[in-house]
Specification:
about 25% helix; 3 helices; 6-stranded mixed β-sheet; globular; CRISPR-associated protein Csx3; CRISPR-assoc_prot_Crn3/Csx3; alpha/beta; single chain; about 35% strand
């Protein structure tokens, strides 16, 4: 079992700049304490003035931790390989819950 590794990239969408946070869990298995520790390490980099979108194979509870850590951002979303990035929370009129942002995939 291992802590996830995170990478960050700043991208542009039709609605403005966004931050993409991708993660990978080495070996594909992690524990709640390991994931929580990894989120705590990156938490300070998440809140900001741009929306944050997450991508990676991980547990639902891990995504919950990430979304909670990023809550102060204008909008957050997750990746679905069939649809693209989907807005799941928003405090910004440019993004509504349920919006699909496909252009981030090709960026």
């Amino acid at each position: 079992m291992a802590k996830p590794n995170f990478s960050f990239s700043d991208r542009s969408s039709e609605r403005g700049p966004v931050r993409l946070v991708e993660f990978e869990i080495p070996g594909g298995v992690t524990t709640v304490p390991e994931f929580a520790a990894a989120v705590a390490e990156i938490e300070a980099t998440l809140p900001g003035r741009v929306p944050v979108f997450f991508s990676g194979r991980g547990p639902v509870w891990g995504y919950g931790m990430l979304l909670h850590a990023a809550h102060p951002t204008p909008a957050t979303g997750t990746y679905d390989p069939r649809l693209g990035f989907i807005v799941v929370a928003s405090h910004d009129e440019r993004y509504r819950v349920g919006d699909i942002i496909p252009e981030l995939v090709a960026a």
